[in-house]
Amino acid sequence: MDPVITTDALTMHFRRCDALMGVDLSIQPGTVFALLGENGAGKTTLIRILTGFQEPTSGSCTVCGIDPLRDPQAVRRQIGYVSDAPALYDWMTVAQIGGFTASFYDQTFLPQYEAAIRRYDVRPEQKIRHLSKGQRAKVALSLALAHDPAVLILDEPTSGLDPKVRRSFLESMIDRAATGRTVFLSSHQISEVERVADTIAILHRGRIRLHGQLSELRESIHEVIIDTDDPLRAIAPPPEPAEVLTEETSGRSRQWFVRGLDPEMIQAWRSSPGVTDVRTRVASLEEIFVACTGELQAV
Amino acid sequence: MSSDTIIETTRTVPDRSSSTAWFWWKESKQLAPLIMLLIIVAGLILIMNVISTAIVNPGGFWLPDEVVLLVFPGLFATGAGPLMVGQERSLRTMEWLALLPISAKRLLSTKLSVAFAGLALMWCVVAVGIALFGLGNPHDANWTIGQRPSHSDNPISYPIWMVHSIYVLLSGFYVSWRIRHTFYALILLIPLAFAPMIAVGLIAAYNDRPMMSGTYDVLIGVFTLLGIAVMAPLSYRAAMRALGPERAPAAVPLLELPRRSSADASVDETAPRFGTRVAALVWQSIESRRGMLVLLVAMLLVSLLAFIRLCSIDSRLRGIDQFLPFVTLLAPLAVCWLGTAVFKQDGAIEQIRFLADRGITPQTVYYARHAIPVAILATGLLLYAGWALTTVGGWDRDRTPVPSLITVAAVVFLFYSVSQWVSQLVRTLLLAVILGPIISVIVTVWLLTAYTQLALPTAALVIVSLLPLLATRVVMRRYMDATDRPLAFVVAAGVVAAMVIVPIVFAIAFVRGVPGMTAEQRNTLLAEAHSARRQTASPVQLMFLDWRSNAERTLVPDSQKDLIEKIRNSLNANSQDPRQWINGLETLRQGSFPLQGDFYALDRFQSAFVLHRMRWRQDNDAESFERFAPWLDTASVLLKGLRRSRQVAQQEIADRLEVTLIETLRTPEMRPHRDAPAVRSAVASIGTPASRAAARRRAVLASWVQRQDPQSRSSRDHVAALETMPRGLVAWLDEPLYESFVLAALDGIQASKNRSDDGSWRRRLHSLASPKGVFESSQYSDRFRQLPAAATMGENYFAGPGQLWGRAWEYVDVAEFLQAGDDTTSPAPGITSESAPSEPTATPGSQASEPEASNADPSGSADTLSLRDSIAANNQITPTEPIR
User: Fold this and answer.
1) CB proximity B545 to A under 8 Å
2) Calpha distance A157→A153 (Å, rounded)
3) CB neighbours (10 Å) of residue B321?
4) Could you tell me if B517 and B525 are in contact, meaning their C-beta atoms sit under 8 angstroms apart?
5) Residue A70 sits in the same domain as residue A198
6) In sequence order, which ranges of B11-156 are alpha helices (DSSP H)?
């Protein structure tokens, strides 16, 4: 199956920083893809390039097989996009902005929009200006979803939503993916992502540090704690292709997050002189994220 | 709320089936603030017109100038682009709009179409306004539409105004697509909007001669059309670029800077350190608007330099200097925008909220926001003062006047105060930037007009000028918390009300401070006045049949004659028989018609009269008296005619003629001729204090009632004090001041009749009729009245009426003098310049002393030389030399 979103060596240089450095991504249709990264990691820049608002310095990308630089309108017809701070016409009412937007789509838009705001319990006669942040997010989500886009791109979509609505919304994302639609999610909320995402990518300082199926990633990264008899005892790092993502020492204990851990490596450490105990467990997504975005990445 | 209700409410959205209808609806709604702004401005102009008219011209209404209406579409065109594009870009709704399946071309064309439709509507409103109010000047038009004469004398024709507004609209769209920052976009729009005029001005400068209005109009039209041809594709390209993907920065750093993510920036490396909180706030105030401040300071400096250059030119502006007046207008604009920058600029609201979130007091934030603009303005004023001190003041018609520092400071303060207030009141930067200067100009003009023309005291002006600053300070706390509405509007309404009402209250108080008549006095006197006026026959005009024709007068230019000959000719001009010289004399003699003449006519007659009197007295024989007798007779006829008049001015002339006549009759040389018909007629024409008082009273009252009739009222028919009153209150003060004059005059007339004078009526008449001088040195003073009447009566009617009332000449019995023995040779006391002063004194409560003929100085000549005689004396003509 052809990927719905691809990026190839996508690079974006701003005057004082490099937002993206050779980003390669491939997102399959029918998945919930989560892009994780710190603030300023380049998530929003990537989304702006994908939605045709920003020209990259180099590299290329496609969304639904269309180059957003060549035909941004075609891309935008295929997608629904909600930014982290949706800019809506604050002088319109909820109903008016729905009516206005619906006029550019087919007949199904308005009923779907009305159903959405009914579900979110937003009063249609209220002006956008008078809505709370969460209510604005609900309206923005309703507008982005009402035309049932093939790709839904969401930048921090649940920010401002209460836990109940957030849960309901995230579950609806899973349902969308189940119907073959793709959801591109950019978020800080690791626990939420963990609950709904099929595929994740961790963006750090403009580079993709980790990309793959969430379940596979979880299995591939382990926390390893090695206890020694002497705090100064040297422990050999795991051989390649294994990779130590982070290392931390606390007294006689040494903590590693290792990608590509092999049982033989554990045996090797256990047999090393001075090692009193070796414990391992599968890392959580949050631990993976911290490991990938930490300052000390490798020994 | 139930689901059904929600669905019902949702469905209440107007049914606009097509996206075009929705799009037009949305774009039209976005123009609403601009329309509201124009309505507010129009309303303010109308209110100011109504107030000004009510004050200055009660009962009438001043129509707005045609140009005021023509400017409105231009204002709409200026604001449309920045509002429909610039604001959408700054609020990022454009990005949301771009996410919808709308092509960039459709988006651009829809916005332009709505803007053009709005502009067309504006022109329709203007056309209706011009037609409805009958504005324009079709009789003096400078241009034509086809072969038909146009409707206006405006140097720029209506079609060019329209074409120019289209050009400005396109330029507004261009700058808004090109520049994301609304303020900078508007700054760029100013030179673009005036580019056609600048181009024409440069052509005129190159040719170094002014243009005919038609040529000027055509050239502006050509350049404007050229501008449209350039702006249309530029706007399209700018829009396509703005709606397309944002381009990646292309510049490659010359130095290989370390590449890093923005997250790498260390706080320690970049954070500035501040010693005090105020320093931090000031830093924020500068850094957040550095570009804006630099631009505004540049505008101020350029404007000041242009003004200095303008003031150094003492001839007609030529060449590039013709633009100087326009460049100087940058300064008021910069002052207003400095005020606007206090509360409105990109990100200003967020900055203020940021400070509010950190518990900074509103007072600190308020002063910190004002600190930099105020410092800039103070520096600008110091520079101006420094330059103004080096320039020579005074009025020169050819030179641009240099306003005083206090005037400039007052205007700057008002502009700044109002603009910062508007910027707090209005939500969007764009509206604040446009509305600020307009409201500032209106408020400044109103308050300075009130100060100079409506008697608004300085203290009140200062207080009212401070109100906008006070209003923003009061609302500051709520503004910081974003809860300033509706309080801000309530406070604003109070400020507007105070600005309008305070000057009006002071104006009313000033008008009420002028004492007029009580209702009872008015009714009583009006009844008498109407009766006096009804009894008047049509007046006979005092006219001279000159012996020299005008053609003859111009044959020999005066400059070619020597002085003596000129005087001789002048004297000979009046050497004929007055009965042939004065028109309508027989009518006057036989009928009961009043005479009407002016002071120049009287002066001419008196000069001739005195000349003939001198000749008679020099020769002092029967033949010379025969020649003089007609003059004596004519004077008595004229005097009677003047006394019959119902006009104050004619009574004043009569007083002066009567003084001359009494002076003549009181000469010893007259006694031998006392039985001559001319002398008897002259003696009979001399009135008594009672008859004069009656004539004067009738005249004062009739003149008063006559001036109430607009048909017969002349522009000079007012008391002199009115000219020293605030101009805006003249219409309101005219009547009470004249009533005061009537009361003072009636008191004076009564005092003269009774020969009692406490001086109060003279003080009142002085303050009303010659208010500029001091009473003690005026012609109403005791000192002046002690001088002989004939020596003081020249043309001093213009210094106030009633100066001769109640003086010694009034109480002289001429008949008794003529019947008295031949040994009595002294002239009339208190009449001639040589007589001893013996007029009634102004000691309050005392009875004026009766002038005694025996106390008079017996040595003087009876002939009192008026101004003409004095000139002759100065030209070394001895009094003894016969002048023929």
Assistant:
1) no
2) 9
3) 17
4) yes
5) yes
6) 19-30, 32-56, 66-81, 87-90, 93-99, 104-133
C-alpha dihedral sign at B347, B351, B357, B361: negative
- What CATH number is associated with residue A63? 3.40.50.300
| CA–CA gap between residue B191 and residue B18 (Å, rounded) | 40
Given a contact cutoff of 8 angstroms between Cβ atoms, the answer to whether B471 and B491 are in contact is yes
Give the closest of A13, A48, A52 to B249, CB-based.
A13
Listed residues A175, A205, A235: the one ending a domain: A205
Residue with tokens 């300085």, as numbered in its chain: B458
- A238 to each of A227, A265, B681, how far by Cα in Å? 16, 6, 148
User: How many A-B residue pairs are in contact by the CB < 8 A criterion?
Assistant: 128
Confidence band, pLDDT 50/70/90 cuts, at residue B853: very low
* Residue B574: predicted pLDDT: 56
User: Are A169 and A277 part of one and the same domain?
Assistant: no
The reply to whether residue A124 touches residue B246, judged by beta carbons under 8 angstroms, is no
Whole-model pTM? 0.73
What domain range is A240 assigned to?
220-293
- Is the separation of the CB atoms in A218 and A267 below 8 Å? no
Chain B residue with minimum CA distance to A20: B261
Chain A hits for B14, CB-CB cut-off 8 Å, are 99
**Three-point CA angle B786, B788, B794, nearest 5°:** 115
Cβ contacts of A12 on chain B, cutoff 8 Å:
248
Closest CA to B334 of B302, B299, B365, B379: B299
- Asked which of A91-100, B342-351, B711-720 is least confident by mean pLDDT, the reply is B711-720
* Cα separation values, B737 from A7, B697, B719, B796, Å: 90, 18, 7, 21
**ipTM value for the complex:** 0.84
* Residue at B281: amino acid letter: L
**Cis omega (within 30 of 0) for bond into A241:** yes
Give the 3-state secondary structure of chain A: CCCCEEEEEEEEECCCCEEEEEEEEEECCCCEEEEEECCCCCHHHHHHHHCCCECCCEEEEEECCECCCCCHHHHHHHEEEECCCCCCCCCCEHHHHHHHHHCCCCCCHHHHHHHHHHHCCCCCCCEHHHCCHHHHHHHHHHHHHCCCCCEEEEECCCCCCCHHHHHHHHHHHHHHHHCCCEEEEEECCHHHHHHHCCEEEEEECCEEEEEEEHHHHHHHEEEEEEEECCCCCCCCCCCCCCEEEEEEEECCEEEEEEECCCHHHHHHHHCCCCEEEEEEEECCHHHHHHHHHCCCCCC
Task: Say if CB B205 and CB B319 are below 8 A apart.
Answer: yes
Kindly report the average pLDDT of chain B as a whole number: 79
Kindly state whether B556 is in contact with chain A, defined as any CB-CB distance less than 8 angstroms. Answer: no
- Tens-digit pLDDT profile for residues B489-538: 999 999 999 998 999 999 999 988 888 888 888 888 888 888 877 766 77
Is A298 among the domain residues? no
Query: Percentage of residues in chain A with pLDDT exceeding 70?
Result: 98
Provide the terminal-to-terminal Cα distance of chain B, rounded to the nearest Å.
114
- Find the Cα–Cα–Cα–Cα dihedral B603, B608, B613, B619, rounded to 10°: 150
Question: Where are the domains positioned within chain B?
Answer: 19-244, 276-513, 520-874
Q: Is residue A299 included in any domain, yes or no?
A: no
Read off the DSSP letter of residue B145.
Answer: E
What residue has token string 């035909």? A71
Q: Residue window 240-279, chain B: list those with CB within 8 Å of chain A.
A: 244-249, 251, 257, 259-264
Torsion of CA B298, B303, B305, B308, to 10 degrees: -160
For chain A, what is the domain count?
Answer: 2
CA atoms within 13 A on the CB side of A91: 14
- In the predicted model, is pLDDT for residue B88 greater than 80? yes
Residues sharing a CB contact under 8 Å with residue A284, sequence separation 6 or more, in sequence order: A194, A218
Looking at the structure, do residues A44 and A158 belong to the same domain, yes or no?
Answer: yes
